[in-house]
Design goal:
By secondary structure, the chain is mostly helical. The protein has one domain. Helices cover 58% and strands 0% of the residues. The protein has 3 helices and no strands. The longest helix is centred in the middle third of the chain and has 13 residues. It is globular and about 30 Å long. The two termini are 19 Å apart.
Amino acid sequence: MRIFHGKLNKVLGTNFSFNEPFYESITTDAVEQFQKKYNVGAPAGEANLATRTRLAEEASKR
């Protein structure tokens, strides 16, 4: 959870603290935003394998 939020912070510039619950609406919204921006499948807000893999790739570039 901390790693996932940290990667979203790095790639999207979100401001997740590391003690937030994993899937609240703000996490879903951020995942949908990422999916739309990076064209990762249907933007459903679900952190599926394709989304997590692409997020890790983009975070490693920064």
